[in-house]
Known about the structure:
This protein is an alpha/beta fold. The protein has helices spanning 61-64, 67-79, 96-103, 162-169, 196-206, 222-229; strands spanning 2-7, 21-26, 29-35, 52-55, 87-92, 110-115, 120-123, 126-132, 140-146, 149-153, 174-178, 210-214, 236-237, 244-246. 47% of the residues are buried.
Amino acid sequence: MKLKILGTQSPYNTKRHNCPGFLIQDEENLLMLDCGSGTHRMLKYPKDLQNLSVIISHLHRDHYNDIYNLQYASFVFHNQKRINIPINIYLPQSPNRINEDIRAESNSFAEYYEISEDTKINIGNMEVTFCKTDHPVETYAIKVMAGGKSIVYTSDTSFSAKEKIVEFAKGAYLLICEASLLEKYGFPEINSHLTARQAGIIAKEAKIQKLILTHFWPEEKAKQYVKEAKKEFKKVITAKEGKILRL
C-alpha cells in the first residue's frame, strides 16, 4: 500500500493546507479516506477517478465538502467517455438530511453505500472495517488491511472512546490520529476531540508502529502537536500535504 496525505487541517482550508483527507493506493485501486475542503486538488484527473472509492468518516463539512467536486468531475469525465467505472461513495446514514443531499446529486457518476460498525468492504486486496467513535454525529474510525499490514484512521473522536480505538488499532503499522487540541489550553480530558497527548497515549497502548497526527487548527504550528504527542509515543510523523508513505 501507498499512502498520500491530502489534508491535515480543520475546520477550514488555507493556501497551503487542506481539510482532512488521505489517499491509499494498492495496485490500481484507490481509496480516499475523507474528502475535506481542498483535497480534490491533490488528485490526478481523470486517471484517479477510474478506480476510486471514497469513504466519508462522518458528515461534518470539513470531512466531506469536496465530495461534490468529485461527483461533478466524475459526471463530466464519464460524459466525455474518459472514465467508465463509477466512483464508489461510502457514507454514514446520519445526519439523514446530509446523506440524502449527497446521494441526490444528479450530476454524478457514482454508486452509494451506507456504512455501519458491522460493514466490511473489499476493494481489490484491501479489506476495510469500521469502529464507531464518540463524536457529536455518527462517526467511524476506519481500518484498511492489505499485504499483512494495516492503516487505521481514527477520524474525529472523544477520549471517551479510547478503549474501543485502542482495541481496533491494536498492532497497526500506521495510525492516523486526530489531535485537534493542545493541553496548554486547559481542555477537559473528555471533549469531542483529542489532545495531541491523548493521541500519543492511544498509539502507545495500541502498540502501533508509527503515528501520524492530523486535524490541526490553522493558527497552530504542527510541530507543537508533535512535541506534545512525543511525551507518550516517540515514533510520530509530521503530516504534510503531498507527503507519501510506502508500507
